[in-house]
Structures are given as C-alpha cells and as structure tokens.
Alpha-1,2-Mannosidase
Amino acid sequence: LSLVDALDTLIIMGNTTEFRRAVDLVLKSVKTDANVNVSVFETNIRIVGGLVSAHMLSGRVEGMQLEDGWPCSGPLLRLAKAMAARLLPAFNTGMVQFRSFVEIHTFASKRILSVSLMEPYLEMFDN
C-alpha cells in the first residue's frame, strides 16, 4: 500500500532510479485477486489513485520506457483499471450509498463494522 501510494512522490522528488525500481516491484508483486476485504475509499484513493498518478507522471521520467499509445495505455494504468474493476460491486447496491468494503477475490461487497485498515493490504503483495 505505501509503496503504491509513494510512486508519485518519488517522481516529484526527482528520485527516478527508485521510481523505476518501485514500479518493477509493484508490477511484479501486486495481486488483484487476493482473498481479502479492503476499504473501498482507501483502495480507491491510495491504490487506484496512486497507480493513475504514477502512470501519468511516468512520462516525465527521462529514459522511462513508455508503451505505444501512452498515456492511454501502460502497465500501471492496466493495474489501476484491474483494481478499480474489483471495487465496482461496492457501487452496485441499488441504493444511493455504496458498500464500505469489497472482497477483491470474489467481487463481493460487504458492510463490515470493524476491520484493521492495513492488514488486508498486506495480503495483496507477494512476500
């Protein structure tokens, strides 16, 4: 979670070497099918938002390999889209209010009253 959330900061601070290393680590280790319940809000702003902003800012990194069609394509953008797709069931409730948590492996939305905010995200990364 923190690594994804820090990607854009690495670019803004000018640490392109660590940015490239962090992107490789994120792309190799983030699992979009982990069997965990995650906060829709936190996942949206930190994971999806972090990936989208890092994708857009990666165009400023000298020597960064960008796919044909960038900024409309790229591995960080695809990962953001996959994570966002896992959050969609939280909004398909038939109500104005969305569900607070989503089980990203099964796409099931849940209303959970008490949960550790960090623990589910740890299982999204390969050890």
